[in-house]
Amino acid sequence: MRARCARIIDGMRIFPATPEFTGLNTPIGDEYELERLTVEGRIPAEIQGTFFRAIPDPAFQPYMEDGGAVISGDGMVSALRFARGEVSFAIRYVETDRHKAELAAGRALFGKYRNPYTDKPEARGIDRTVANTTPVWHAGRLLMTKEDGRPYRVDPRSLATLGRYDFGGRLKSATVTAHVRIDPATHELFFFGYEAAGLASTKVAYCLADRHGNLTREQWFDAPYCAMMHDFAITEHYALFPIYPTTCDLARLEAGGDHWVHELGRDSFVGVMPRYGAVSEMRWFRGPKGVSCYHMMNAFEDSAGRIHLDQCLSNVNAFPFIQRASGLNIPPGENGARLARWTIELRGGSDAVTETVIGPPGDLPMIPAASQGRPYSHGWMLSMNPQMQGPPVLGGPVGAMFNTLLRLDFTGKPPQGLALPAGHAISEPVHVPCAEGAHEGWLLTIVDEQTGPSDFVHALWILQAGDVAAGPIARVHIPHRLRPQVHGWWVSAAELDAAAAKRGGTRSPGVDRQFSTAARLRVARNTPYRGTPSSAVGGHPDECRHGTRYAGNARPWSGPSHRA
């Protein structure tokens, strides 16, 4: 294995000894590439492409206390490239205007999370987004997104930043969500931006780009109040805009306060409109008071014309820094978390939603891309194992990492669960489809293992998507410290090659070097993997058959199954 690495931030960086900057959240600040990573087991032949990941990693220590710093670190884009059974790894900072300004100054210039009134004078007028949430692939373009600004376009081969992206000057919204939706039949990109007219505004932009990436529609509407609209959903005929009472107030920002406060006594809403219609057709349905959700699993219409919205719901916002700003202290075990289905009757006159619990607590849900907006049979999500012995691995935005992967079946079959051993954590997976129709494909996910108080080793696990309880069929060891990702995106080699051909470039280079040795890539490093290889990796992935059972303490989740 060959490695090239550079620490791009020179000098001493001393971060606060708080959960935002310790454990797995310890800042790293390295750009590097690793070639021909050690692979344990066999990689399925159909896994050819790149797993892009978004990672927040602050370049400089903050100059003021800010709990929201855990989700406002400078964005990095990581690429795990699969070609002919070999894997390479590369990671680079997204060169946002904010990141470049702080590099030039040699210190932090931006204050609290999403509050420009706390910035240094030198930061005035500079785009504040850190583009650290989701790498979005559409129409041959890779966009690094965060919901507080417009995305940055990144070269999928070199990971070089190409600049801010506004759809050729057509986009009017100041913001773009990190959770877009791509229709599997039309390949259109549906997205939105909230606080579209600026800080604390109620304006929401609803946008549509065609399969070629051309922005064809942008309509604005007013939300019931300024809320954190992290995600949304589409069905075959409708667009859904959930509103939960994590709210923003301009006066609070001007006084130097937090962007978000959660209001337990305020109603939630869902706006529903024809997805090709006018925003004047929006109907608002009222949900329970005080609830919170970051991520939707899916939405679909049934034969009776009802709309079902499946979401990872809780009775309060789970982020500790938002609870502190709200004067709340509700621990995760008491927040009423569940996978909930809200059913909306369009044909009647009622504005109420009906809730059904269809799964256990958890987050980061995922479905096959082909099921987007349609009735679906199964999905995956992360959770916590209630039978785990010992504390969870500390890290991520809520302070504790997930340790269980679930496959939930909505046709009446029992769920599956892969519970990791103590001291392990799992990140949101991506799904790689299999050309064989009966085979569900594979999940790729980063697993962290804590080996000491501040020591970790990391590996990418490959699992059979239809048999997650079997454990990994292959592991790819990553001999460098990693920080937790937010979201990821899988792009096949065929898609990358098609995009390169359209640009007049070359085919996907697989495990070859992805970017040239720049001036800041000046320290060579080759660090051996320090983990303990497992013998519980096997099977015949090339033939779409199941691997051997995971030898750890995995127990399938034994909760109820629910029929869709």
List the main descriptive attributes of the protein structure presented here.
564 residues; mainly beta; 7-stranded antiparallel beta sheet; 6-stranded antiparallel beta sheet; 4 helices; globular; disordered C terminus
Fold and architecture overview:
- With 564 residues, this protein is mainly beta.
- Helices cover 5% and strands 35% of the residues.
- It has four helices and 35 strands.
- It has helices at residues 97-105, 250-254, 320-325, 493-503, and strands at 2-7, 30-35, 39-41, 49-56, 75-83, 86-93, 134-138, 141-145, 152-154, 161-164, 181-182, 189-194, 203-209, 215-222, 233-234, 238-243, 246-247, 261-262, 267-274, 283-289, 292-301, 307-314, 338-344, 354-359, 363-366, 378-383, 404-409, 416-419, 424-426, 430-432, 442-452, 455-464, 472-478, 488-492, 523-524.
- The strands form eight sheets. The chain has a seven-stranded antiparallel beta sheet with strand order 34-4-5-6-2-1-35. Strands 3, 29, 30, 31, 32 and 33 form a six-stranded antiparallel beta sheet that branches. It has a four-stranded antiparallel beta sheet with strand order 7-8-9-10, with no helix packed on it.
- Strand 7 (134-138) and strand 8 form a beta hairpin.
- It is globular and about 65 Å long.
- The model is unreliable at 508-564 (pLDDT under 50).
